[in-house]
Amino acid sequence: xxxxxxxxxxxxxxxxxxxxxxxxxxxxxxxxxxxxxxxxxxxxxxxxxxxxxxxxxxxxxxxxxxxxxxxxxxxxxxxxxxxxxxxxxxxxxxxxxxxxxxxxxxxxxxxxxxxxxxxxxxxxxxxxxxxxxxxxxxxxxxxxxxxxxxxxxxxxxxxxxxxxxxxxxxxxxxxxxxxxxxxxxxxxxxxxxxxxxxxxxxxxxxxxxxxxxxxxxxxxxxxxxxxxxxxxxxxxxxxxxxxxxxxxxxxxxxxxxxxxxxxxxxxxxxxxxxxxxxxxxxxxxxxxxxxxxxxxxxxxxxxxxxxxxxxxxxxxxxxxxxxxxxxxxxxxxxxxxxxxxxxxxxxxxxxxxxxxxxxxxxxxxxxxxxxxxxxxxxxxxxxxxxxxxxxxxxxxxxxxxxxxxxxxxxxxxxxxxxxxxxxxxxxxxxxxxxxxxx
Length: 438
Fold this sequence. Notes:
mainly alpha; 3-stranded antiparallel sheet; globular; Myb/SANT-like domain-containing protein; Myb/SANT-like_dom
């Protein structure tokens, strides 16, 4: 979805009109727009003033502060043109099903062959993924659907209607005349197998109800996992790496140094079932087993202290006496140790899926807290960040920590598909090279 109106940052922090919208930026914009649709800020296909304001606020939160209204309009038009092309091609075709994992419409070989023979231009859709098509479908389909064609949000994941097989345009079904013998009357034509997740993959061992499994299918199956990082502490014992003292003061070294494999599907299952109790305790049920953490459990899990200042992502409490103006002036000239602290923040303590080089207001505040030895309640912050990512369709963080939680609570991981840590998972010398420090 990189085609269309382009946006990128220039040296002054503003955005030029003819620079490129990335796939990640499209994802951020689509999620922001869908949130506003759910708040009824889109009426008859047009955004309300408040809707636009909220969209820009969502973009600002991830560092896209220079995008203008025309940039958003042009990007939306580009996305809509691409969606319309694909939707009109597959919307009324039987035999095709959307695969959320591969991001493609899939069908039997003979079905594809017949379609390509009729419309050679569709060949590209057999091999090329269509990023964020499910989000575009949710956002745009109701703008023009009427009567029997109206689809509810996220219906794109449901199997298509197989009753009338047609290989023509979705906007008007035409029945082809066929040469040769017709099937004998009463002869049953077997429909393609169901594509629901419970029919394709065995996730029943993870969930105690079909409802939870369907939530997983619609909201979490295929959701990106943020590549976890583990700190290689021995590399940073050399003189000059003073940032380690600040981490030691916060008792973060055991958490940052966890080196465990992770399990992508279990991470998604974990977030599907994740809840935070009114007492701010983690509560999860997986495979019929319950996880319920209390304050002391965090010591056993990652040697993290549950106490001190409770912070919520995106907020700055007044009692911290944070001097934003002074902190911003200092942020313009970050030292090497500041940059290393920021790297740890965006990749390990509060992982995000993109914009790693952007220093956001919250980043500045958290750097200020660590440099001023303000003790932070890290278990509380981590749980809040988990819920933020879970509920806002963001990439899922803390994969290694989730492995550790499952280990502590006695889950058998032997038969699960593990991702072993490689060089790209470690914060060490190669990371310094990427930061242009070495």
